[in-house]
Write a structure and sequence with these properties.
Layout (H helix, E strand, L loop, with lengths): L1 H17 L13 H24 L5 H41 L1
Helix pairs in contact: 2-3
Amino acid sequence: MTMIACGLLLIGIFFYVFYPERKVEAQVQKTRLDFLRERKEMLYDNLRDLNFEYRAGKYPEEDYAAQRAAMENEAAEVLAEIDLLERQTPAVQQVRTSSLGG
């Protein structure tokens, strides 16, 4: 009896985990800009954590400097791409609205 109950529970768990969602069209598709904004927030959080751990004495100076420089470089690249995409987005929207209107 216990084996049957465990088997049914296992089938139920697999069904719950792997059954596809019915409202696929309702799912929001992430844009590159959304992804970059999330990446920026994650990098900022990582920099704050790195600074905290360095002040707590968990990192030697040279490791801290190398990791911080790498994170700052990546953050600068992400910010540059965000800026580029944000400058392009209004132009694309303006072209779409002008082509629809006239």
